[in-house]
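Would you mind writing out the residues of a protein together with its fold in token form for me to study?
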Amino acid sequence: MGTSASATSQAAPFAPTHQADHQGNGMAEHRRSLQSVNIHNSKTKSIITNKVAPVVITNNCREEFQIHDKIQSSNYSMGRISDLLPEHYLVLGEFFMVQDIYNRADVLNTTKSHGAPNFRKVKGNYPLFGMGQPSLNGFKQVLQRLQIDGCEEVVFICVRKEPVVFFRSDGDFIPYTPRGRENLHENLHDLDRELSAEQIELSIRKELCDFAKLSENMFYVYNDIEHFKDDPQQVQILSEEDIHVTEEVYKRPLFSQPLHRYYRLPLPMEGAPLEETFDAFVNILRVTPNLSLMRDSSRPLPALLFSCQVGVGRTNLVLLIFHLFHRQEIQKSEHKLDFQVIELLISRLPKGQQVLDEVDDAIAMCSEMHNIKDAVFENKLKLEGIGEDYQIQGKSTKAYFLQRTLQSLERYVYLLVFNAYLHDQYPQAFPQSFSQWLCMNAWIYRLLACMDSSELSAPASLITDGIRVLVSSKFLATDLLSTAKEMKVANFRRVSKMALYGMAQPNSEALAVVMSYLTDQRRGHSTILWLNLQEELVLEANGQMFTPREPGSLEQPIPVCVQHPQKLQILIHPSDSILCEKWLGVITEQDKQMRMFKTCHTIEELFVHQKSVHPGLSYQRIPLSDCCAPKEEVFDQLLEAMKSSLAEDPNCAFIFNCHDGKDRTTAAMVIATLTLWHINGFPECEEDEFVSVPNAKYTKGEFEVVMQVVRVLPEGHRVKREVDIALDVVSETMTPMHYHLREIIISTYRQIKMAKSEADAQWLRLRSLQYLERYIYLILFNCYLHLEKKDSWRRSFSQWMSQVAAKAGVYAILNHLGFSEFENPDDSLMARLRFRWFPHSAQFIPM
């Protein structure tokens, strides 16, 4: 008989109705729906209302429309910025629409002359341009200006991550962004990780059209968030054509200029972009013939135009990235960043000094609005000059400026890395993406993981700055194995039938007891290698062991990231006046108190004394991170230490300790067990026992990602089984702990569902991934021991991983690490090497 249709918003004004009427008066809803139908009144014969939707019948009785455009106002939220301003609907349930660009943002004063704020060309001959956010007419003016200047081809890249919509105003479309009430000056950069900015913009437009239908075709926006003069202002919305999204503003003008291209590649406000963003930049080069090495030199280079909100931070970053593609004469910079991570990176990169000079030169060429190196210096100076600590955006000033310094330093370092990639791949037409190249050079991720606070604060301040407290080892190390009474140290144990021992951190008394025990007539170890696995600072004060911790996270060690472990011993000299004769905050197993110490000693000093009593004792410190897979060089150091000691005495005993004798000690004992088995022979292996408990394969470590690695490795199943046996053997020494390096993987992952908060869930997710990665690394190390045994392991594990395992795709697998049986690993940043290897605290974990 008729057809049903959903109407487009072409509404005439209607009287506002209170929210209670929206919910309870069906006729009022029908009236609003009718006004949204684009049917001329002369064609309407009758309107029939019903409980489903109004029906419109035309005069000639040939057409019937049932309206299904009912808007439920109860689905939307209302709010006001202050009690003095009107209440209105909120975008996405909580946000106000604020004019994107304020007047003072246009520092270069180019909006009228060029069409966009802060429009500029980079120094030199290459046509690189940057600008802030233009209106629709402003963007057209920019394109006209480039055309007048002879730019036949334009590649325009918007690097904004936040959603932007454009309201019709005086023949133009003006940009507005949603912002929160608590910070009306800040755009929203992480609204929804699963949705793109374009998708969010479309959702916002749909909501705005609904709001207009509920509010006489009007919506409130804000143009002056400083004084709210004449705010909020009403904008008229009759249809979707009164609102543009970013894609419409930037793509529609390009139809008249077929040589122009548009891309949206969101960049973060701070820090370095993700690797796939660099990959996207490279893909633009691949699809733009006039930017390739094989381009027609007779044709002019395409103009590259970049835009963010005000045309400063993100625009400057992308200008630098593309400037590196076009190298010019290098002018060496006198302004150097003095950071260890930069020095080490340049020393290892091919053409490292040239890579550095080119980046510094590019920064000089693109520094009219922003200088990345200056940003590092400025944030570092602010960090060093902080006196009284207060809150900035929910963080202490020190934490805030530390994060800002690290983010600006990360940007600079990633420019160096990307330039090194260009040197390697650009002449070959990019056979590898930046992501793939980094997985083949995973040592860069390891180096970047040391770009932490250890370079930005004096070592002594770890204890004496009045912020951190000294925590007693007895508070941190629960004696689950009940060995403190006899051995004076927590969790002392031995691997069955092997001269391998583990324990918590001993003080001088416990050290003497343990040495007497190992060298007595029954055991008779004449040669002993003691390996301390702690990466945090430890000292003995008044006969007790202490370590500095943050008051808010006493369980979290404060690592000191150094490239040379021996330096860890001399970072602090507690025997000096730094600690002695000063009142310090101390937490023991009983309470928190202020103490003054009379005697202070480093771990090194304790072992120097014991060596004078037991000449066969050797001591090394090989720092491991708690709960993580040991770094490749840690495997090298442990293997070399054991090889050297066994070469001198085949009956040498090995002792490992960390702060509690649990996590790191157990991992090192497993590595030592595998090493000794390869040297002395493997025990007889029994057949796999049948386990009937639910999901037993996960308890046995048979995760999809683990089996993916196993399939790659020669005799992978045998290699994994040997690791499992070693784990079981070491676990037998610590049964009361109920701690197993393999079984803890799935048990930790299952706790995520029971987490009390999102932060706790993310922390458990990170821990489960770290445990999973450590298990895989033990399998890889065992494979290395098998394959390199014929050459007496002359090639190190680090070299084997980079020269052999990386080419087999191992790091690529680890760069998508996760529990694919239960979820998509790539939904979490922790699946990536870059984020998983970076030092984390329980307070800050990237989602």
Residues 1-42, 458-462, 561-577 have pLDDT under 50 and may be disordered. Residues 678 and 789 are 8 Å apart (CA to CA). The two ends are 54 Å apart (CA to CA).
